[in-house]
Design a protein that fits this description.
Blueprint (H helix, E strand, L loop, with lengths): L9 H35 L6 H15 L2 H14 L2 H19 L5 H4 L2 H30 L6 H39 L1 H5 L1 H12 L6 H8 L8 H7 L1 H22 L2 H9 L4 H29 L1 H23 L4 H17 L4 H8 L2 H19 L3 H12 L3 H17 L26
Organism: Spongiactinospora rosea
InterPro entries: MFS, MFS_dom, MFS_trans_sf, Sugar_transporter_CS
Pfam families: MFS_1
Length: about 450
Amino acid sequence: MPPTKITLDREHRRVVLAAMVGTTIEWYDFFIYAISTGLVFATQFFGGAGKNALLVSFATIGISFFFRPLGAIVAGHLGDRVGRRAMLIFTLLLMGVSTALMGLVPSSDAIGAAAPILLVLLRIMQGLSAGGEWGGAALLAVEHAPADRRGLYGAFPQIGVPIGLLLANGVLAATAAITGPDRFLDWGWRIPFLLSVVLIVFGMYIRTRVTESPVFEEVKKTRTQSSVPLVPLFKHHWTLVIVGALLFAANNAVGYMATGGYIQSYAVKTLHLDRTTVLAAVMISAVGWLVSTMLGGWLADRHGRLPIYRIGFVVQLAWMFPFFALVNTANLALIILALVLFTIGLGFTYGPQPALYAEMYPTRVRYSGAAISYAIGAILGGAFAPTIAEALQTRTGTVYAVGVYLAIVTLIGLIATFLVKDRPGTPFTEAPTPKPLAEDRP
């Protein structure tokens, strides 16, 4: 019987709150950097306001993505060995410390080349944290869920991303409005980074109160954990890792147009719109992304994970070029409309993700499999999406070249949905077959 309403008991509320709050704080920290690359760092750390400085600044977003697999491997190994909860506490702390320290790094005018080097090193620490965070948060929520509510429960840590985006843009917009353009570029941008300390204390309090995943506890009790989860993962499930990475890459590349700072930078520096106004527009779109993500997770419990994915990718394809046409009008209302409608496809390809990934892998390698698929997909999709977009726009002179690039990536994701089985409600005590091909029926 498909679920008809959202009801959570006390323990489940605590679990989804811990997953959502922690993910929100993690991605607030991550987005603060991503948004600041186009608005601040090119000037303060990478040599000026020219195109080359902007490209280098955007490239630092991508560098951290190459360290996500390492974070996923370490957190996945320990998460499959010692538990999901401990890893969530560690990754949250690592992200918070990295972000707060960024707010203390002097500009290149003060300490020269050491400034961008320190900034990039801290960004790498963020990448390590992000690589391990998602898998633990998603699995904690899904493994606590009733079998017919995994899509819904899994959507809660997912909405931490648009909430983090909303929070990051909101704090930056408020800081920019209060300090003014000159003081914002001089020192005001540091305030959102330093505020991470307060958020981390709150997040740690929430996460230390949650119980371990019951599915993992059962595996631990029967002593069926894998001593080295990566070995059986890549020996028996490597095709799932690849397909999972392609699915996320298509969502991530498109999502990073808004979250990675490209649209903000394009609107401010090419269309000459007010910085605070643009950040407010992205905040509104983040609300749309939140709603569509929850709706995507809920619908995935009623109709399956993959049908909702396919609808999302088709919407992304259909809206790709109208999106850029509306952004090019430089009309704020139309830009908001473009961004909000853009988030429908994003939500439908993001909300069902935790449930789909969790049901793809057996428990003893689930954290490793989900985290590594996610991390590789982030490299293929979001790592250099803003940099590629900036380079394409500069080389061709038109933002529609970016639309072509994103349409190709989305099409690859759509094809990938036909290479994996939908297993809604599959028992977590049973290991699904490692072969992902849709025609490989049990």
